[in-house]
Design brief:
two-stranded antiparallel sheet, globular
Length: 465
Amino acid sequence: MSNLRYRQLPESLYSDQAPQPFTDMTLCDLNESWLEETPHQSAYRCPVYLRDLLNGQLPDQLKPLAMKYDGHQFGHYNPQLGDGRGLLIDEIHGPNQQLFEVHLKGAGMTPYSRGGDGRAVLRSTIREYLGSIAMHGLNIPTTNAIALGASRDWVWREQQEPCATLLRVTPSHIRFGHFEFLYYQRNPEETSQLLDFVMRCHYPELSSAEAWFDKLVKRCARLVAKWQSVGFLHGVMNTDNMSILGETLDYGPYYFLDEYRPRHVANHTDSQGRYRFDRQPGIMRWNLAALAQSLSQVIDAKVLIESVNRFQDYFDEAYRHEMLAKLDLSEEHTGLLERWLELLETHRADYTYSHFLLAQDVTTNFDTLKALFNGDAAFDNWLNDYLKTSSNIDERRTRLRQVNPKFILRHHLLNEVIAKAESGDFSDIAKYRRIFANPFQDHIEDDAMSIPPLKPVPVSLSCSS
């Protein structure tokens, strides 16, 4: 009997593929908080079992597969995509007894590797492991990670790097690109089968495909609004990196903003700035339009277009809600929000730290806060107007601390933990996991990690993994 519901789909959407084990495998870290919510009898609570999975040594009852999908990369259609270094290996019950797919990333070559080695490097694997845990801690929809492994085997990227593997989980790894593959194959029958599967397994409360698509549009609008509200830059919003659950999927050259630079581009491959921070909402809408085209084989195109056209309203509402909450302001004070963002951009103030300081005793932290705005009198005027909007400062601070994180997974911190891990010291990974899984807590002993770098450097990252 198959261990994966995904096998109910047409065979054109996957290939059977066994992982390729390494010379050795070290279990670097496991996500204890997630695994504690799996059933007590689950083998996933056993570190030895997890290490074996990370090494590609699967029990006989698991029948892994590589998914086939296509997608638009930097706006251009690419028909030669699919799981080039990852495999669906299992389904397990996680939090609230929900069924989650387990995906092994870095498992070796598949039919979709496009000549690659199918491996992932330690650097990118740590980034995805901690990035997904950090996003989950920020209450932003995302795939999650349950274990990270490192090998002494090496591969060549831009230089020689150690290999690693990741076990990640989500209810579904199906992407926009799955539907695009079937559309460009001109296969409406299998498109209908895939759509029925998605609705039955993941949207059982909905009675029509039209309602599903509109709900997905709204989820994606809310997702990118949350990204913008915490300063998260995905870096490579290709359609094959877009989840049909409206979750954050595939952590490549992502970046949490230090200085507030809305036009920042994190991906050095993105020479045109397609995926820069302030363009993320528009790109999400573009991706949904590409998905709508793929669905037009089986859903009325007019209805799909109407839903895509509602994206901007959904996003504006969600973003306004997120940002007003970050300042504890009501709708009547949107002008104050706009002035605040202008000040942040003008002075390239640290995005997370500025919001965090507002949630503290402003009188005590006034000099530190004002220094972020270079002593600009316009900030004094804004703060004076802002303080007048609440009569109970203590209650406001409580609300602000619930939505403005103290800790964010900054680039320089990631570099530090990666450098230690590449030298064979994995001890900081667990510490970082605990902190960024709970970014609103104090973690007094690690206060220094909440402070922005003295001289932040604009980050340009590679897609290579």
